[in-house]
Amino acid sequence: VQLQAFGGGLVQPGGFLRLSCAPSGFTLDYYAIGWFRQAPGKEREGVSCIFSSDVSTYYADSVKGRFTIARDNAKNTVYLQMNSLKPEDTAVYYCATCGYSGSGSIEGYDYWGQGTLVTVSS
Q1: Residue 55 in contact with residue 28, Cβ under 8 Å?
Q2: What SS3 class is residue 96?
Q3: 64-95, pLDDT tens digit by residue?
């Protein structure tokens, strides 16, 4: 039982990608699902989270206005649309269940799977 992230790749600065997160072995309907990323030599960062109850969302300051998270319960998938990509967005992106941490950001809980590599470079 895990969440699989798909859709990474190599893109030029200013470009876009859409990542998908799909579960194996369960449905997403009642879970808050988030995206996290880890760049080489850096700590894992919470990027975005979408909640199940009211479909409210969280975005890290570093991606606000550029990234959009959405869920399609009929397709059992959560998406992360990433626009205006920057080299500093380069990282392995993971999805997991999520919630607010005590510091006002988000933290990941369960069902981590293999991530997908996003490389932003010219």
Answers
A1: no
A2: strand
A3: 999 999 999 899 999 999 999 999 999 999 99
